[in-house]
Please model this.
Amino acid sequence: MSHLSNEEIAFLREKAKEVRIDILKMITKANSGHTGGSLSSADLLTLLYFREMNIDPENPHWAERDRLVLSKGHGAPALYACLAEKGYFPKGELDWLRQAGHMLQGHPDMKHTPGVDMTTGSLGQGISAACGMALASQIDHKDWRVYAVLGDGELEEGQVWEAAMYAAHYKLDHLTAFVDNNGLQIDGPITEVMSSLPIDEKFKAFGWHVIHADGHDFNALHAAIEEAKATSGKPTMVVMKTVKGKGVPEIENKVGWHGKAPTAEECERFIKAVEEE
Model:
C-alpha cells in the first residue's frame, strides 16, 4: 500500500487548518451551527477532498466522480469549508451560512450547493442513500466509489442498521463508511444516552469489513482507505477515534460545544489556537 509523503502530509495539515478556520468563522458569523462535530470530522474531509476522491470542481455533476454523503448532516460546515477551499464555489459564500436567500443551509442541500452529492440532515438516512449510490456503481460496472460519514450518536438510529444489512447483502464493496467516533452527542456521552458500543463488533456481525483508525492521522486514514479499496465482496466501515472540537484545546471533548456558536471574541481566540497547533 502507498504511503503519504512528508510533503503531502504538510500540505494536508495546512489545508485542514484553513478548513477549521473557515468552520469557526462561518459558524460565528451565522451565530448558529455545530462546532464540535464539524471540527472532529475536518481532517477526514480534508483528506478525501484534497487527496483521495476522484472529483472535478469544474464539473460537479461529472458522472464518473466519487461521491461523498455526509450522513451526519449537521457537520455541514466542515463539508462547505472543503468545497469552498476546493473551488466548487467562492469562499465568500461561507459568510452566508444559514442565511435566508443563500445556498449554504444548516444541512447539506444537493439542489442548490455545488459539490453536495446528497441532501442530508435527518440522521440515519444518508447512509441509506450512500448504499443506493454504491449499488448503482455496481450495477453499471463503474469504478467510482462512495464515501459516507456518520456520527457515533447517529448509530442510535435503526435505519443505520437496515442500511448496514443491505450493504452487506448486496456486497457493496465500492462503499466505504466512516464513524466519527468522538464519543459525544448533543445530550452527553454516547455511552450514557444510548450506547452503540461495541461499534466494530456490530458492523462485523452485519457482514462488514471493519478498520480502526485515528481520525486525526492522515497516514492512518489513507491506509484505511487503501485497505477498503483492496477489499472485495463486502462494504468497509472505518471506526475513527476522534476528538470533538479538535484543533481548539479550549473546547475539545466538551459536549456543550456540540451545537454552540462561538462569540466574536472566542472565534478570534480559537483561530489563534488552530494556527498555533
Summary: The chain has a mean pLDDT of 97.
